[in-house]
Inverse folding.
């Protein structure tokens, strides 16, 4: 593939590479940050990267199934954020900080 | 040509704000950057003619989830946060190189796999309304069990989140 056409014409690959970049940035946040809330935000970034690739695949193959999966991903992401933030509130009540290291002492 | 420029603009916006989420130490600015990133992704969905998904992205992420995050951040007193990143130079270098390595792996394997799908071969949708209609038909026929499972999951999560946040002593109730 000649370079000029790959730069001027947006192909599926452009969207997939954007999606991979978003996923890796999110993963970097998850393994790098200490704040539990920022880690949750990074997980949202990862899920959004996956959503981008679903929508791009769906568009370029002219099907609707990818959009439905995106809905499910969004619903699960919202649920995960709610539970994660409730856990963060519970941790904060006890330790007065939301460092991810506090989660080592979890008990049922 | 305008769509190409728009794509690169949106890509820059999304990636820059995503990096902002990861690299800014203050969580409230992280939340702001996350909102910008979500709005950029929604605009990307618009440019892909996925109008309904773009709208839902705006409402659910840039609306509901962001309000949740900002409310929880405001609930905590985050002035005394000192350590934003994990410590140790070696582990930092290892983590950065691991992320870059995984991205390079995915990108290089992508460039070998899907090089033949270009936007010139893209078939246009007939109309936006028809795609929404098809989407809802799929949601209530082919994916009906997944849909119901999601509704059960949401109810469980609502109850679980409320009981978790209300429990005395948080997650350490038996500890005291």
């Amino acid at each position: 593939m000649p370079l000029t056409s790959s730069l001027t014409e947006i192909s599926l690959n452009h969207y997939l590479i954007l999606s991979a970049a978003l996923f890796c940035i999110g993963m970097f946040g998850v393994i790098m940050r200490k704040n539990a809330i920022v880690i949750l935000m990074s997980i949202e970034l990862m899920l959004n990267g996956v959503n981008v690739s679903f929508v791009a695949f769906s568009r370029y193959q002219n099907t609707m199934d990818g959009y439905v999966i995106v809905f499910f991903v969004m619903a699960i992401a919202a649920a995960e954020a709610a539970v994660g933030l409730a856990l963060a509130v519970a941790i904060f009540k006890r330790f007065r900080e939301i460092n991810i290291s506090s989660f080592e002492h979890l008990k049922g | 040509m305008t769509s190409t420029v728009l794509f690169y603009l949106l890509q820059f916006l999304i990636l820059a704000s995503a990096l902002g989420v990861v690299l800014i130490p203050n969580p409230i600015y992280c939340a702001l950057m996350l909102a910008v990133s979500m709005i950029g992704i929604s605009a990307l969905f618009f440019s892909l003619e996925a109008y309904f998904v773009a709208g839902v992205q705006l409402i659910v992420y840039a609306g509901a989830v962001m309000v949740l995050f900002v409310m929880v951040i405001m609930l905590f007193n985050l002035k005394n946060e000192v350590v934003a990143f994990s410590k140790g130079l070696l582990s930092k270098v290892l983590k950065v190189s691991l992320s870059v390595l995984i991205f390079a792996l995915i990108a290089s394997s992508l460039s070998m796999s899907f090089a033949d799908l270009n936007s010139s071969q893209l078939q246009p949708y007939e109309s936006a309304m028809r795609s929404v209609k098809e989407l809802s038909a799929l949601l209530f026929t082919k994916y009906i069990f997944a849909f119901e499972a999601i509704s059960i999951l949401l109810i469980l999560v609502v109850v679980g989140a409320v009981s978790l946040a209300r429990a005395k002593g948080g997650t350490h109730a038996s500890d005291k």
